[in-house]
Design goal:
By secondary structure, the protein is mostly beta strands. Helices cover 3% and strands 44% of the residues.
């Protein structure tokens, strides 16, 4: 049955087109994150906290008070008590003797698909039935292959498992067919939730359905409606099937077809610009969820040949009712969540979907695995209405709507390089969304939002209290100066200029200050191993470099990687001077001391003073350094000092003040005077208000023309980082006096 029959609604909602954070509708209510629970807290007492733990697929008990999720490296299903969603508590870790791939929960039992395959040819796995009373395994049923997704019917009569028998990606470049073929496994459940056919699972043969590799179906995800029909995605085959669970018959089967996304990033470059389009790309859907008994939605993540970067709403007959086109891509761009390193592959990579009724409205949730966000849409029966974007932790995988408790849950699976896997909870009922704090408007020339991210410094316009400037760091190929309008919430990135005319391949902008005679001062962090120099730049308002200023060679010889991190023009003793903060100690610095470098433009000379760094306080160790410097007038400065830790390990995120009054900066090679610093503001409480992973990089600080103290965090371009950007109004700058 052709999947392109019927009405095809393709378009961009106003929220996406104009870079809005949400669509404020009458009586609109929103989700607010209320908790982020690290999975390592479910480890048994005495276990090493550093043990790898993940949360991948998540499900809830019928009352919504118990959550169960898969921990693949731990070979366990983890149960936690969420009766108080603000204070999640571990309950049990049930060992499975194999890799859990999915979990579903019924009235009396949880059901886990367990992969026990020795290799890609000898595929094996089983269904583990776990009693909710006592949480012991009561049955182990052979599924006749390697399981993937598990679903239980709403009436509790059937359990369906997508048996993928996944391919070897290193064999023949991962091209299928690769035997053995997958299938759908059906278990019939009695009134107690026990499989009545544990020893004789019903197998639904799915060969011969797809146009792509019909001999090797690879079912990926399954969802069941109230008519006991299972919709099954065959991702690698770019196909969808509907199965009647009572009879085991395939009642509908159709290609997932192709889709186009216009004005999206496609180049193999670190930018989130609308550099092209993806045309007629196979959807290759991953997750699927019924919206009602007649319609379902797929997340078109793609696999080895596809990935249309969006989601699609279908009828049970295979008609496309709506395709999101470029919306997920544009949401990532406008919210600073675009994974630019993935632009030439699958972009934001929508992977999971969930559906639930909240406030009398049916809501559709679609996650971006690489952009670390969930897009929330309201079902209208036609084109869905974008509601809000929810920030997640790194690698959102499983989504779960819990309408009876007004909760929504996300399982975030990445647990590496200091980032820990989390289960995040969001509560429905907020009058306004607190996230995002920054979005970009649409660039009229490109028909797409201004792409942005990795904001590493802030400066305030001295004549306009609602205008700020920010720069992006070396994550991106181009160095940019962004203009922010903070007159409304969220703040809007309204324009940018690209820095041009510098004498090296790339800049790493970490500081910006408005120059009194026009244009900007920029600080670019050097990196001896990457052929980047430590540069102070004077640039025009058009971004063109007017002057490159380097350090004395004797100091360059002492340089380390962690260098320029902030810049501030100031007046003192009738002279216009420029202060540059150096992040950490260099080879010639005493331990615990870093430099403030003072440049005199009139004399073209440098002087230096020492700044005493706090010692690391985190139990996880790490380092402490500077991220920003702001002039307070009369030779006084606010300094942004931080450690390099995030989450529960974050210990030092603070503002201090120092003064050059009575201090004479020394030339390099002379003994440097040591400044006295005063602690002023602990930033951790403000940064933790979002109830997510405490971000490790508060990077920009400025004071508006009307005296407000504004902070911004660096999201590292969503590269192994949550992707959130926090623009925080810290109140009157007078608190620094």
């Amino acid at each position: 049955m052709a999947n392109l029959r019927g009405r095809f609604l393709k378009g961009v909602s106003l929220a996406v087109l104009f870079g809005l954070g949400a669509v404020p509708a009458a009586h609109a209510e929103y989700f607010e994150r209320i908790n982020s629970y690290p999975v390592y807290k479910t480890l048994p007492e005495g276990a090493d906290k550093a043990t790898e733990t993940v949360a991948e697929i998540i499900y809830a008990s019928k009352d919504g008070r118990t959550l169960a999720f898969t921990d693949s490296p731990g070979e366990a299903i983890v149960f936690v008590n969420a009766a108080n969603p603000l204070n999640i508590q571990p309950m049990a870790r049930v060992a499975l003797g194999g890799e859990p791939t999915s979990v579903a929960v019924g009235d009396k039992a949880a059901y886990a698909g367990v992969n026990t395959s020795d290799d890609f040819i000898n595929a094996s796995g089983h269904l583990a039935v776990i009693a909710l009373d006592g949480m012991g395994i009561t049955a182990t049923c052979d599924a006749k292959g390697q399981p993937d997704s598990v679903a239980i019917s709403p009436d509790g009569k059937f359990l369906a498992i997508a048996i993928e028998n996944e391919r070897d990606e290193d064999l023949n470049d991962g091209v299928i067919p690769q035997m053995p073929a997958g299938h759908l496994a059906i278990f019939d459940l009695d009134e107690n939730g026990a499989p009545t056919n544990c020893d004789a699972v019903r197998i639904v043969d799915m060969t011969g359905l797809a146009e792509v590799a019909p001999t090797d179906p690879e079912p990926e995800f399954v969802s069941i409606n109230s008519k006991n029909q299972a919709v099954v995605t065959l991702q690698e085959n770019n196909h969808i099937a509907i199965v009647d669970l009572a009879s085991g018959d395939v009642v509908a089967s159709f290609s997932a077809g192709t889709a186009t996304a216009e004005n999206v990033p496609v180049k193999k470059a670190r930018m989130s610009d609308a550099s092209g389009s993806t045309e007629n790309v196979r959807r290759e859907p991953d997750a699927v969820a019924w919206i009602d008994d007649e319609r379902f939605v797929t997340a078109n993540e793609g696999d080895y040949e596809g990935g249309s970067r969006g989601f699609t709403i279908w009828t049970a007959e295979g008609d496309v009712l709506f395709d999101s086109g470029n919306q997920m891509e544009h949401l990532g761009m406008s919210h600073g969540h675009y994974p630019a390193k993935r632009a030439h592959k699958k972009g934001t990579e929508p992977e999971g979907v969930a559906v639930g009724e909240f406030g009398g409205e049916t809501l559709i949730f679609v996650n971006s695995e690489r952009g670390n966000f969930v897009a929330v849409y309201k079902d209208t029966g036609g084109e869905p209405e974008f509601v809000q974007l929810l920030p997640t932790h790194v690698g959102p995988e499983g989504l779960l709507a819990i309408p009876n408790r007004d909760l929504f849950a996300v399982a975030n699976e990445v647990d590496e390089d200091g980032v820990r896997a989390h289960v995040s909870l969001y509560q429905y009922g907020a009058d306004t969304p607190s996230y995002p704090s920054i979005v970009s408007i649409t660039d009229p020339e490109k028909g797409a939002p201004i792409g942005w991210g990795a904001l590493s410094a802030l400066a305030a316009d001295p004549t306009d209290a609602n205008r700020l400037y920010a720069v992006s760091d070396s994550f991106y190929d181009d160095a940019r100066i962004y203009t922010l309008d903070i007159s409304s919430k969220p703040a809007k990135i309204s324009s940018y200029v690209t820095v041009t005319g510098f004498n090296q391949s790339k800049l790493d902008l970490e500081g910006i200050s408005v120059a009194r005679d026009g244009g900007f001062w920029l600080a670019s962090e050097g990196h001896p191993e990457n052929d980047r120099r430590h540069l102070l730049l004077k640039v025009g308002t058009d971004g063109a470099v007017q002057e490159e200023i380097t350090l004395p060679q004797s100091l360059i010889d002492q340089a380390q990687r962690f260098s320029f991190e902030g810049v501030a023009e100031f007046e003192m003793d009738g002279q216009t001077l420029v202060a540059v903060a150096v992040q950490r100690e260099w080879k010639d610095d005493p331990k615990g001391m870093t430099k403030l470098a003072i440049y005199n433009p009139a004399e073209k000379s440098w002087g230096f003073v020492h700044y005493p760094l706090d010692a690391p306080k985190s139990a996880a160790g790490g380092w402490v350094g500077l991220s920003e410097i702001v002039s307070l007038g009369k030779g006084r400065f606010a300094i942004l000092e931080r450690d390099n830790k995030g989450g529960e390990d974050a210990a030092i995120k603070q503002i201090t003040t120092v003064s050059l009054e009575g201090v004479t900066p020394a030339a390099h090679g002379e003994e440097l005077p040591v400044l006295e610093k005063a602690f002023k503001v602990d930033l951790l409480p403000a940064m933790a208000k979002g109830k997510g992973w405490v971000l490790d990089k508060p990077e920009g600080l400025t004071i508006t023309a009307d005296g407000r103290l504004i902070l911004v965090t660096d999201n590292d371009g969503v590269d192994d980082a949550p992707g959130e950007t926090q623009l925080i109004d810290l109140g009157p700058a007078s608190r620094l006096n």
